[in-house]
Amino acid sequence: MIVKNLDDVIGTDADVDTEGWNSRRLIYRDAGVGYSVNDTIIKPGYEMEFQYLNHFETVYCIEGEGQITDLARN
Q: 42-64, pLDDT tens digit by residue?
């Protein structure tokens, strides 16, 4: 079992801040579980395109709105 709080991640190397987004990586590659759990904030007006080759990721929106296109299925 892996137990983490967001406060455990903020301000560490797992707290990645860029021009368009801020991602707090709660569960990542180093956990060896094959998926990630991130608390990510997309900054207003920013558009992103990601491809995940080495893990699965679940995305959920808790505020605002967004659009996800599964490029592997198109």
A: 898 888 877 777 777 777 788 88
pTM for the complete prediction? 0.71
Listed in sequence order, the residues at least 6 apart from 54 whose beta carbon sits closer than 8 Å to its beta carbon are: 29
How far, rounded to the nearest angstrom, does the alpha carbon of residue 19 sit from its chain's CA centroid?
Answer: 15
Count the Cβ atoms, other than its own, within 10 Å of residue 73: 5
DSSP-derived 3-state class of residue 11? coil
How many CA atoms lie within 13 Å of 32's alpha carbon, on the beta-carbon side?
A: 1
Q: How far is CA 34 from CA 28, 39, 52, 55, in A?
A: 8, 17, 11, 5
